[in-house]
Amino acid sequence: MLPETAEDLEGLLNPTLYFINLAVDVEGLVLTGSERVIYTNNEDVELEEIYFRLFPNTPGYGGKMEIKKAMVNDEEPQVAYELGGSAMKVILAEPLAPGEELEIEIDFSVEVPSTTEHGYGLFCYAEEVMAIPNFYPLIPVYDEEGWNVELAPEYGDAVYSDTSLYFVKLTVPCDMVVATSGRIVERADNPDGTATLTYVSGPMRDFNVVMSYEYEVISTTVNGTIVNSYYLPEDEAGGERVLRYASDSLRIYNELFGRYPFSELDVVETPTKAGGIEYPGLIVVADRFYERERGFFELVAAHEVAHQWWYSLVGSDQVDEPWLDEALTNYSTVFYYESVYGKEEGESFIKNYFEEAYRKVVEEGRDMAVAQPVAAFSREDYGPIVYGKGPLFFHSLRGEVGDKVYLAIMQEYLRRHKYGIATPESFLEVAEEVSKRELDSLYEEWLLSPRRSGG
């Protein structure tokens, strides 16, 4: 945490604590891990079970996670596996009352695929890069629907989790260059040629590790935050460009939305088939862009940095309500283009990336309501509807209330939901309170209603 945001920790309500040990066998593509989780029931009902998501076992990750042992308060619980082994239900011997905590210990192993063919290739060892997001059993959100454990389509985000604190010990070959969601606080070189690296995080929803023997790193500082660009040697110029894009984005969003609270932000080149992917404190950008200047390379960097506000700091249900983070994040990039290049560039960006994509689906009779789960969209329609039409709601809102009030809405939305979970209803509530306007009709027009013809 930055010194001026460290007090944020005092306002957290019994966050889950993850103490993780992970050894990485790079040649064998095997992770061997253990975690100790201290979990507090922050709900107002008793919990008879606790779920863990085993994301490597999902089709979009393509790995294989095996639970070797699970213990609850030093006793072995009954467990059951669901969703093709990607969810583990730990059945408690006695219900966990509101406000009570328990300790869960889990030993696990993971096989890492050596190909990017699964989903977006976000979890793999390929092109000399090992990316292992969500390599550990992760507790999902419990809300009025119960435990959120549904299996997300491969073309959508999979993680819906509460803010937690992480303490991670990572044992890797001593010459491995590692980027993580947290910040390193200790390094110990071992006699066998490995090194054990200790990382701690601020309040984060999940934890990612990316590593390569080949990575080179350049850094700069923005408002006290160190921004690191990890790139492969042949992509030095791209590594420098993406550092500039990310640093400018961080500076702009800090000023307009609210302060990024962490002392570090990593931008990492990986072979993902997505344009980029967001994680708390770390974003990955596809290696295929590193030979480019501006264009989609710049957009991806600005978009993923904006996710540090609308996903990392303000959480939402990415599986059932993807527009609330993706559409908002995509529209937030407009402020990057306006700030760096001027209003005219921002208008051109809106036309090229939002209006044109949406116009095409309307003309083809494929328009849909934006406010739907990822699974309601085909792979073909998910992008133009959620990333194209969705931002036009926020653009219309901005046009309705003006720039000053729009940014006041974003700032209040961040303040009210920082480290928590937002919903479509809570966003609309903030927007109406700050703007002092009734916005149901705007919400209905852009998010709930398809257009069958016209633009």
Q: Tell me the Rg in angstroms.
A: 22 Å
Low-confidence parts? none
- End-to-end distance, in Å? 46 Å
Give the averaged pLDDT, no decimals.
Answer: 96
How many alpha or pi helices? 9
Question: Given this structure, which CATH class of the domain at 19-162 is correct?
Answer: Mainly Beta
Report the oligomer.
single chain
How would you sum up the major sheet?
7 strands, mixed
The overall strand count is 21
Strand content: 25-35%
Protein architecture, described:
With 455 residues, this protein is an alpha+beta fold. The chain has helices at residues 236-256, 295-306, 308-313, 323-341, 343-363, 379-401, 403-417, 424-435, 440-448, and strands spanning 16-25, 30-40, 47-53, 64-72, 78-82, 87-96, 101-111, 124-126, 129-131, 142-143, 146-147, 164-173, 177-180, 183-189, 194-200, 209-212, 216-222, 225-231, 264-270, 276-279, 282-286. Among the domains are: 19-162, Immunoglobulin-like, CATH 2.60.40; 323-448, Neutral Protease, domain 2 (Orthogonal Bundle), CATH 1.10.390.10. The protein contains nine helices and 21 strands. The strands form five sheets. A seven-stranded mixed beta sheet has the order 4-7-2-1-12-15-14, with no helix packed on it. Strand 20 and strand 21 (282-286) form a beta hairpin. Helix 1 crosses helix 2, helix 5 (343-363) packs across helix 6 and helix 6 (379-401) runs antiparallel to helix 9. The longest helix is centred in the C-terminal third of the chain and has 23 residues, at 379-401. The model has no long low-confidence stretch (mean pLDDT 96).
